[in-house]
Amino acid sequence: MRGFLIGRWQPFHKGHFSIIEEISKEVDELIIGIGSAQKSHTLNDPFTAGERIIMITKTLKKYNFPYYVIPINDIEFNAIWVSYVEALTPPFDVVYSGNPLVRELFMEKGYTVKKPKLYNRSEYSGREIRRRMLEGERWEHLVPEEVVEVIKEIDGVNRIRRLMESDYY
Amino acid sequence: MRGFLIGRWQPFHKGHFSIIEEISKEVDELIIGIGSAQKSHTLNDPFTAGERIIMITKTLKKYNFPYYVIPINDIEFNAIWVSYVEALTPPFDVVYSGNPLVRELFMEKGYTVKKPKLYNRSEYSGREIRRRMLEGERWEHLVPEEVVEVIKEIDGVNRIRRLMESDYY
Amino acid sequence: MRGFLIGRWQPFHKGHFSIIEEISKEVDELIIGIGSAQKSHTLNDPFTAGERIIMITKTLKKYNFPYYVIPINDIEFNAIWVSYVEALTPPFDVVYSGNPLVRELFMEKGYTVKKPKLYNRSEYSGREIRRRMLEGERWEHLVPEEVVEVIKEIDGVNRIRRLMESDYY
Amino acid sequence: MRGFLIGRWQPFHKGHFSIIEEISKEVDELIIGIGSAQKSHTLNDPFTAGERIIMITKTLKKYNFPYYVIPINDIEFNAIWVSYVEALTPPFDVVYSGNPLVRELFMEKGYTVKKPKLYNRSEYSGREIRRRMLEGERWEHLVPEEVVEVIKEIDGVNRIRRLMESDYY
Amino acid sequence: MRGFLIGRWQPFHKGHFSIIEEISKEVDELIIGIGSAQKSHTLNDPFTAGERIIMITKTLKKYNFPYYVIPINDIEFNAIWVSYVEALTPPFDVVYSGNPLVRELFMEKGYTVKKPKLYNRSEYSGREIRRRMLEGERWEHLVPEEVVEVIKEIDGVNRIRRLMESDYY
Amino acid sequence: MRGFLIGRWQPFHKGHFSIIEEISKEVDELIIGIGSAQKSHTLNDPFTAGERIIMITKTLKKYNFPYYVIPINDIEFNAIWVSYVEALTPPFDVVYSGNPLVRELFMEKGYTVKKPKLYNRSEYSGREIRRRMLEGERWEHLVPEEVVEVIKEIDGVNRIRRLMESDYY
Description:
Chain A is of the alpha/beta class. The first copy, chain A, contains seven helices and five strands, in the order βαβαβαβαβααα. A five-stranded parallel sheet of chain A has the order 3-2-1-4-5, sandwiched between helices. Chains A and F meet through helix 2, strand 3 and helix 3 of A and helix 2, strand 3 and helix 3 of F. Chains A, B, C, D, E, F: Residues 5-132 form the Cytidyltransferase-like domain.
């Protein structure tokens, strides 16, 4: 059985990782969709699809679990989005998502849809981690160590801070 | 004389219907544009273009008035939007719209533009009807009975409620 | 039962009309898709979607048969095209098309697909009619008289001839 | 040395002009990018790219300084935006922008990036000028006289006011 | 009076230059549209919009004639193309083009359209010049000397030759 | 060192596989780009991106070599294509491609570009394999056995044959 899990992974954190660990007990293979793949360099979506792929694959390297990572651009046309995902990915049987729109769209097309359990939601949260980066608080303990490395290599924290500077146009 | 009336019809309600009744006295044929045709499955735009077409044509079936229903995608380029509408529709002489941007764009291209009268705006309002659906209040009396049927068939009220669930990504 | 018939209708001719007559015996309602809606002003696709809608609705006006005319832009992404059509139209049960790609795409999604019979294919052909227009031969007897009127009003034959002039860039 | 300066110029005002005067001392030629070129007819972006080009070229006509004005559409894909600008413009050595995202994107690609000084920011501000137009206050002294002429010719102030009318769809 | 002249300028050659010289006697200002601006790196369209802008502005620098160079992307939607051009450029009164589609589209919108005279068409031809580059024949005498310089700087002839290598995928 | 290899893989054949075997000796990780990802259901590009991903991953499963498979849509804008690929993939040091346009684009951006050796080009060719499928000749020995399985499961040969039927619109 193959599963499909989609998220924005901005950045990939320990909560995401534990979700994948749980799902890996239920499916034989997992497709990990990189949602909003075209977005980057904003406070909400600081990292490119390529950077997010590296975060995920470095972290999962040591685990012997078969998965695919597929970037999925937003298409701003909800009614055809499931079909778009199907065209870009191997077929799958079950969909995992914490996002109600994603669940609704797949459910209406007849998919089995599950809502993964997320532990420690107040800290294992992309929004919280980005806020900590911006305000100079500790964030490294909330993501896998491989993700810390990736973000340091690309100077990701400074990218986020520079994007916050005021604009006067 | 042919008229053009554009709206989002999310959903098509009795206020919309009375506007069409009024306009039908002034024109020989009416083009009904389905605005933001590509949008669906959001709280603001829950229904697909196809679903909205069905709502309108079922309601108007018993009236012997010649009209066209044409889905119009957003193109996010205001200065060419009138030209885009002209390419997709039969030619028309007068434009009806409650939206000031639509009126401005057509007016600048030299069209006669009219603002249809809307009765009972506080209740005959897409926003109010969607709010009532979401909160479990009575909404059925605000739309034509054919629209009630369509929304029941597609389980539209539950779609809106499911889209409201919290997201934790 | 609702049917879906898609074509480019460049222009709408008597062969098209006889197809619709046949289909009208099999279905209760017919959705007529205007394929390649965004195309116009080329030798292969001279008429805009709006012009093609007028040709069809003028011709069908005298027949008491319920139909919808929906412009469908090309999206250059075959694997999601059926989903795109579904989003823009009321639901349908059976698809009619002379185009093998259209038939294949709908068939793979589980639709019943039929190939309409076309009489007198050498003359009832968009390509043949456009060739006759270009070369100044008689074409009017191959299309419904309403279509002759529409093409005369928009000076369509001269449009095609002017497009054939040589280019030296 | 060639410089690149991008802005939305909604409208082009005296603060913009003084920035160009400053930059003209540092570079031999200047490319002036018209950002969000596809936007117009909104309260935030009332003027078309063509209208903004006229404002700039009329103002700069009397100054003997070589510059290019290039409209740049938004592409909603930050990671490829620099490459998009490079494809549409002559090559440049230094980038001037008040926008932190623009600076970040060019900086990550290795460009020298400078933040132009802006005098009298509370008044020499597109937002403030649009607010004054909307509320009927004096705005003409904040833009070059050529810009006043352009806006009068296109009846720009009334465009903005009409766009503010309430919408009831 | 302002004129609009559009071409692909692949590359800008002496025939193009003599057209501009002629037009400059008829209009006060000229908008030079860079057609198919998004295309480059093919045998038919080897040069980017930025490279073509440089060719034109370097050549015209010594002539004291006011002009604008505006890149215009293809939009593959003929019926709205005139409107698209209008949005991106200052207003103009007369259109010059050797391309019958361009002339038809502007003529149908009511513009005065002129077909510029082209001398020595067999040699002053983008296609012929690209062929000569590819086959190692002399081409430099067919373009302004500034264009020779630009093409040498970007190693344009070798670009074209490398694009001709066989492909085995 | 990470390499990037892009192809259309229509279908993935033994020639492709031997290229990957060769490259795997030179790099530590390989990104395999699925070119023209949005294309499918044509004689030239019969298989979806998802189907091609399955062909590749099933074939490579038994080899212990780290790779990524990333679908890459065509964007019809050559000058920004490299930047588009970079945004969607992990960073890479060397590019492998049999396509001269791909090589040129990466070379101009400063990448090391290599042309992989291909054995038995007359038979190990997507075009030849598709021709054989269409004409009912033997093709199975030209692709890995896992690819034979995938194509059988999706009834790929009949898809290609049905697409060849004549069209009479």
